[in-house]
Specification:
mainly alpha; 2 strands; 2 domains; Tetracycline Repressor, domain 2; single chain
Length: 268
Amino acid sequence: MESEDRGLEANGGRTATHAERATPDASAPRDAGAPRDAGAPGDAGAPGDAGAPRDVVGGRRTREQSRAHTRDRLLAAARRVFARSGFHGASVEEIASEAGFSTGALYSNFDGKEDLFLALMEREIDEHAREIADAVRERASIAERATGGARRWMTMIDREPELLLLFMEFWAYGVRDAEVRPKVAERFAQMRQVLTQLIADGVREFDLELALPAEQLAVAIDALADGIARQKLADPDAVPDELMGTVLSLLFSAATRPAPRTGTRSEQ
């Protein structure tokens, strides 16, 4: 923790003023590499920065809170650096510097660059899955759910192209390494699990049945989304924004049918 404390005092050993803490770092990128939290690399290092968790006693963070805050800042910095430089081009030194910490603080929270990336990947997939789920739920039909989810995915491609390219880069790296491959597969399985649950919920709510298991349909949809993203990033004009929603609607139309009714009058 000593290295973390030194990293937190990013202002030369003095406590940052209120104005310094309130002023965002103008040099931090604001596009797809920007962090989702409010902390910028130059202003969150002071022990008293606003919005950080506080222990009730003495207005100071507990050890657990301080460690969690350090970890969050490292992940936010890693997101910016990876998006800017790619997985192979980034270094732990650059990430630690971006976060305002020493490399010792990074290694006290993560095993290294690969472990840090896997943690970032898990967090980003969780956030993307929540976005997709929010866009799909409470719609009036399976077709509307398909188009709603597809629109959100296309928005994410336009909003964060660097992040998607980064995941593709790490996928290519991971599948070549027998030790890393299961970890990569586990992260990608997160999204398939979310899709499987959304499919199962829709089938139940609209009284349908599937022509194939929900898990397999989720694999197909996930593969379609990845392929659409690659095509869109390579040749944007060749991929209309509504294409994925149209294909998904056709896919669900072919893969679902009304569930058979039981207890009809003829059976009685």
